[in-house]
Amino acid sequence: MNRLLPLAALVALSLAGPAQAGLFDDTDARRQITEMRQDLESRLETSNRGQLELANQNEQLRAEIARLRGQLEVVLNEVESLKQRQRDFYVDLDTRLRQLETLPQTTPAATADPAEAAAEYEAALNLLKDGKARESLTAFDAYLSRFPDSTSAPGAHFWAGNAALQSKEVAAAVNHFNAVLGKWPNDIVAPDAMLGLANSQQAMGDAKTSQRTLQSLIERYPTSNAAQAAKQRLAKR
Fold this sequence. Notes:
The chain is mainly alpha-helical. The protein has a single domain (60-235), classed as Tetratricopeptide repeat domain (Serine Threonine Protein Phosphatase 5, Tetratricopeptide repeat, Alpha Horseshoe), CATH 1.25.40.10. Helices cover 84% and strands 0% of the residues. The protein is built from 9 helices and no strands. Helix 3 packs antiparallel against helix 4 (133-146), helix 7 packs antiparallel against helix 8 and helix 8 packs across helix 9 (225-235). The chain starts with a helix and ends with a helix.
């Protein structure tokens, strides 16, 4: 009888072994499931965080696009205003040339051939329109040297100032724009000359003086297109 006890114990242990192994396998499976769940939750959290960052970036891009569109509209308005001012000036130029042809032959400018003066002016202006700013400046300076008191002198100084500014000869641009404002403050190009003066001051790095010039432009020529451009520029600062 005593010999049967070890055998029974051995059988019992052999039967218990698979049960314990099954218990261990189940525990390991639960552990793996828990780890997989945690990994999945971590990935979901990372994905959600990435989507949130992407949404924020998209919102920033939309805001930047809206800002750029606003700036583009301002620039387009300024370009359109400049085109209108140029068209108005060309009309005025034709009027001035007709007046030049009918002036009495009393001054040095009048004794010159009006057709020759008009041709020189037009040639200098065409150089500027063709993008040859430095050559245009030289041509306008030559014109003003020959016809300093002609009825087209204000326009010549104005366009010479623009040509000088485009050629980065800012000091010359300031002199030409100031010549218009000093001698012909009521001329049709005076408001644009003041706007050009503000641009020249800005190019020289004198932002405060440029801002004061823009404000003076609005006060002196409130109904001009140049004043509207000045208001837009001041609003952006």
